[in-house]
Amino acid sequence: MSEQWAEVAMVVALVLPLAGLVPVLVLAGDAxxxxxxGAILSAALWVVILVAGHRPEVGALRPDxxxxxxxxxxxxxxxxxxxxxxxxxxxxxxxxxxxxxxSSLDPGALVSAMAAAVVLAAAAPHRTLERTxxxxxxxxxxxxxxxxxxxxxxxTSTGLLLVxxxxxxxxxxxxxxxxxxxxxxxxxxxxxxxWLPVLDQADHRAWAGTGLALAAAVAAVLPFAVRRLATxxxxxxxxxxxxxxxxxxxxxxxxAGLLAAAAVLSAVLGGQASALFAxxxxxxxxxxxxxAGGGRVAIVAVAAVVTLGALATSRPTVVSGVASVRDEVVRxxxxxxxxxxxxxxxxxxxxxxxxxxxxVSAYEEGVAVAxxxxxxVGALLLPAxxxxxxxxGLFGHQEPRPAxxxxxxxxxxxxxxxxAIVAAALxxxxxxxxxx
Length: 436
Prior knowledge:
66% of the residues lie in helices and 1% in strands. The chain is mostly helical. Helix 3 runs parallel beside helix 5 (84-98), helix 7 (133-153) packs parallel to helix 18 and helix 9 packs parallel to helix 11 (235-246). Strand 1 and strand 2 form a beta hairpin. It is built from 18 helices and two strands. A two-stranded antiparallel sheet has the order 1-2.
């Protein structure tokens, strides 16, 4: 059902992340602030469309709930990155998510839009990213080419392999980035959640899911083995687990959307404690694995235990120089809506209808009892002088590193653009069309 207000809201939501370009064009104003406010408002509009349950239609733009949720996630990540070019990348990804081909959402449009977002990220001037940004941009572009090749091949074993590898690389590179490339995380997750369940035979998909689960466990353990990755948050392993669940290995598909939402919120916040937002997804995943059986399920269960242990024992990243909640809000204003969304996800996962979590009534009853007990204990401890919980302080912050050189930026643009052309050529002759 489409209503006029929802159509207007969708168009405005697509345009708002471009607000950061206004100060750039008129040479006046704070581009970062404009970009952040525009992206936050865009995410809010997408959430309103989702909650209202409408499916707006404007020409060839007709998003379903998954597309709207992913567009909200892309806008929220763009708000966290806070730059005019990240906003432009978010708009590109959102356009790819909502574009249709006939009566179905267009896989080629999403891949092409993600390639365009990577090119925009590579072209972003005055960035403060790591010196290895050229490598990350190139890896993101290569992973999108793999996705494009999977779309080109279609619903075969080769297509399943290419889409699995491509989506995994996209979310891994985006989840570990602190710049505009991070915006493609939501697009990569949407691609996996939409395409992995329909590719090839169920048995082959289950093996792909097993591989993705093992990759998630490796990503969770890597910060302990590689010192350079010590600040790697839980976004990457959570995103990989979402893709694994999307294959329905061990009947875990109902957990995929919940884990994807947790991965995006974790990417926005950056701290280790944001892994708590995966609680409902983990509960649904564990329930499915408990009811299933077989060798593959045993491997997936071991990978889940390894991931849980790594995330539970990882050293929290610490926000330096934050003396109060007010200071933290000023430093990272997008943390407030992100934490609110995360708490909503933990307390009422059934309200996230786009994620299709199944029956989670028992989980919600258990969480309600736990929250009531925590409030009761807090009411007893606070009068005794115990400090109140610092929710914002739980979430860490990764300091950006020195900027890339102009030569490195040009090289990144060339590599990303060349691979984007390859991806566009592949998806021109798509081997399948994802149903809307």
